[in-house]
Amino acid sequence: MIELDSIDRLILRELVRDATQSASAIGRKISLSQPVTWRRIQRLRKQGVIRGNRLDLSNEMLGYGVTVFLGIKLATKGRVSLQDFERAVCAIPEVQTVEHILGLYDYRLRVIARDIGDFERVLRRRIMALPGIGDVEANVLLSEERLPGPIGCELP
């Protein structure tokens, strides 16, 4: 963990709000010059605090109206390596995230589909055919609110 001062937190808060802002625009909002703001952003990138800029696409506008979270328990961990499972599941285009977790399930997947029928096809033909698949639990996403996390909180 690295030490962040209040200026770093203000910069990060602005980038979380809109990552397309220029250093100049951010600097104006937090009363800092463009060169100082730019250097701080570059330092945060170099230190790994900022890992990239992500494009947030609307699944619904692209025709994917259903999001399902799957809990996956592998049948027998010894028979199939975790790497083999991860490689196979990452090759499925409808799988947006693969999280190796601790608890009742071994993996948590975020899967998108055009509709429930399309999801059933992906589940039956692709996911249930994965090496080592055991128990599967599906939870359909009803709504989602993205929160900025600790950077969006008020500073002490």
Can you walk through the features of this model?
The protein has 156 residues and is an alpha+beta fold. The protein has two domains: 6-55, Arc Repressor Mutant, subunit A, CATH 1.10.10.10; 66-140, Lrp/AsnC effector binding domain/regulation of amino acid metabolism (RAM) domain (Alpha-Beta Plaits). The chain is built from five helices and four strands; from the N terminus they run H-H-H-E-H-E-E-H-E. It has helices at 6-17, 23-30, 34-46, 82-90, 116-127, and strands spanning 66-74, 95-100, 107-113, 133-140. A four-stranded antiparallel sheet has the order 2-3-1-4. A hairpin with a 6-residue loop joins strand 2 and strand 3. It starts with 5 loop residues before the first helix and ends in a 16-residue tail after the last strand.
